[in-house]
Amino acid sequence: MSFKEQYWKFSLIAIGLFLGIVIFRQIAPFVGGMLGAFTIYVLVRKQMIYLTETRNMKRNKAAMLITGEAILFFLVPLSLIAWLAVVEVRNINLDPQALMAPIEQTAAIIREKTGYDVLSQNTLSFLLSILPNIGQAIMGSISSFIVNLFVLIFVLFFLLKGGKNVEVYMYEVLPFNDKNKQEVVRKVNMMVRSNAIGIPLMALIQGSVSLIGYFIFGAPNALILGFLTCFASIIPLAGTAFVWVPVVFYMAITGDWFNAIGLGLFGFLVISQLDNLIRFMLQKKMADIHPLITVFGVIIGLKLFGFMGVIFGPLLLSLFFLFVDMFKKEYLDEQT
Fold first, then answer.
1. How many Å apart are CA 30 and CA 23, to the nearest integer?
2. What digits encode the pLDDT tens for the residues 206-263?
3. 3-class SS shares of the chain: helix, strand, coil, % to 5
4. 297-328 per-residue burial string, b: 16 or more CB within 10 A, e: under 16
5. HSE-CB of 158 using CA atoms within 13 angstroms
6. Cβ contacts of residue 242 below 8 Å, gap of 6+?
7. pTM to 2 decimals?
C-alpha cells in the first residue's frame, strides 16, 4: 500500500471516528429509546419474517402491524405502570419538613435506645438540600421516558421495515471470521431475549408477592414499596432486601413488633427465596448468566444507557469477556 493510500485510509478512519463521536453525543439522550427498539425487534423478528416471507405481506403493512402490537402489549402496560408510579409519588406530601419528620422520629428513637445520634445537624441539612434535586431528577426522568417512547416507536418501525438489510450489513462489517460472527450474533440474541423477558417477569412476580406482604403486615406506603421492590429485584441475591429490611427495621423501632417480625419472616422465607427460585428457573430456560456479570453489568448499564442498561449492561459485559476469549483462542492459544 502506497503512502497516499495509507493517508486516505487513516484519514477516512479519523473522519469517521470524529463524526461518530459528534453524532453519538447528540443522540445520547435518545439511546434508551433506540436500545428499546432493538430489544423489541429481537423479540418480534420471527413474526416479521413469518408475515413477509410465509404470508407474503408487504413490509410496510407488516411493520405497521407489529409496531401496533408492540405498542399494545409492551408500551401501553409499561406506560400504565409508570403512570401509577407517578400518581403515587404525587400523592406523597412533598413538603421537606413533612418528609423529614419520619426520619427525625426514627433517629430520635435510636438515640433514646442506644444513645447514638445517627442524624446530626449537618446530615439533616444535607438531606434537606438534596430533596429538591430528587424531585427535579424524577420529573426529568418522566420527560425523558416520554420522549424515548416516541423514539422507540419510530426506530422500531424502520428497523422492522428494513431490518434484514441492516442485519446483513452489520454481519458483514463485524471484524471477525464467520465462526466468531455467528457466536457474537448468538450471544446477543440469547442475552437480549433472556434479559428482556426474564428481568421484567422476575420483577413483576417479586413486586406482586412483596406487595401482598406489605399489605398483610401494614407497611407504610405499600404500593410505593412494591414498585421499589420491583426495581430492586434487578440486583441478584440481595436486591429485594434493600427494600423490605429497612421497612422491617423502621416498623420495629416504631414499636410495631408483631408486624415487623411477620414482615421479616415473610421477606426472608418468601421474597428472598422466591428470588433464588425464579433466577434458577430462568437460567435453566434461558441464558445462564453469572450473578456477578448481572450485578456489575446492571451498575455499568444504568449509568451508560439509563433504564435499558438493565438489559444491555450485562450484555456489554458478557460481550467483553466473549471478545477476550476470542482473542485468546485465535492468537494466544495458537502461539503455545
1. 12
2. 888 888 888 888 888 788 788 888 877 776 666 788 888 888 887 877 777 888 888 8
3. 90, 0, 10
4. bbebbbeebbbbbbbbbbbbbbeeeeeeebee
5. 6
6. 232, 235
7. 0.73
